[in-house]
Design brief:
297 residues; mainly beta; N-terminal domain of TfIIb; 4-stranded antiparallel β-sheet; 1 helix; 26 strands; 58% strand
């Protein structure tokens, strides 16, 4: 009888693991910083200082630190190349009190910087390609590649007017919630390039298809990022109108509509990044601690 009870308990335990996400490891890296960005493999991490000043990289296998740039604004939405050999980031300059952003490429092997896109006005999010980058600048599509390609990538972004822009061979604008004055932020494309994740200011976070049809409603979470095609990581935060008073990182199952707390309740955790391939999530705390969390699915 005792053996039968033990077997039933083991079965129930395994069933819970099969239907939940479990934190298996948590660590804080030695370097302090903000707005971490993991690469797809989950073994390298970018971070910046407060206000997106400068850009640094930590190899999580060796904990070796590399300074990529000291420039102001360099830490705003940097991207790894799809083969993880380079880092793409912005270089901001001013001319006649007008801001321009160029796109720089940092080779992780040679440690050399080169310019991919000359300074542009209204440069939006950088999207890595196999051999370069693509970006929006106003209503223009900018593409810089080492080798010409006939393939048309699918990319999405929010422009300066907070509208969702979709490029899928041609440029179009989406308004999934039919807002009179669209205010879409944190717009990103799913790994399979079939779904769009976004937050509508004052309304919540959603997922739609490439035609703008709503597929999922994720509630009042902010700074969402894709973990993989089936899970999203976001921060669930509260403020008093002046400052953030609480914030935790959650992992959201799109099929089961469930949330798993990733960060500890004792800390204010914000702005996550994720690598589904490695089962790894990173975020920063209000004090600039960068925490790494490994999960088992």
């Amino acid at each position: 009888m005792k053996t039968s009870i033990q077997l039933i308990s083991l079965f129930l335990f395994l069933s819970v693991l099969a239907n939940a996400q479990t934190v298996v490891k948590r660590e804080t890296i030695a370097q302090k910083g903000f707005n971490p960005v993991l690469n797809a493999a989950g073994d390298k991490l970018l971070f910046t200082a407060s206000g997106f000043s400068g850009l640094n990289l930590v190899d999580l296998s060796t904990m070796q630190l590399t300074e990529i740039s000291k420039d102001a604004g360099a830490g705003y939405e940097p991207q790894f190349s799809t083969d993880n050999s380079r880092v793409f980031y912005r270089k901001t300059t001013f001319e006649n009190n007008r801001r321009f952003n160029a796109v720089q490429s940092f080779d992780l092997k040679t440690k050399r910087n080169s310019e991919l896109l000359t300074p542009q006005r209204n440069l939006n999010k950088i999207y890595p390609l196999t051999n370069g980058v693509i970006a929006f600048s106003g209503k223009n599509i900018l593409r810089a590649t080492a080798i010409k390609s006939t393939a048309a990538p699918v990319v999405v972004s929010a422009n300066d007017e907070l509208k969702i822009m979709l490029y899928n061979g041609k440029l179009s604008f989406l308004n999934p919630l039919n807002m009179p004055e669209p205010r879409y932020i944190w717009v990103s494309l799913s790994p399979d390039s079939k779904k769009i994740l976004f937050t509508a200011a004052g309304k919540g976070t959603y997922i739609c298809d490439l035609n703008g049809k709503i597929l999922s409603t994720l509630g009042n979470v902010n700074a969402p990022v894709w973990f993989n095609d089936s899970f999203v990581v976001a921060m669930e935060d509260k403020d008093d109108g002046h400052r953030v008073i609480s914030s935790k990182i959650v992992l959201i199952s799109l099929s089961k509509k469930t949330k798993t707390d990733i960060s500890l309740p004792s800390k204010i955790a914000m702005y996550p990044t994720a690598s589904g391939k490695a089962g790894r999530i990173a975020y920063h705390t209000e004090n600039g601690e960068i925490e790494l969390v490994d999960v088992v699915m």
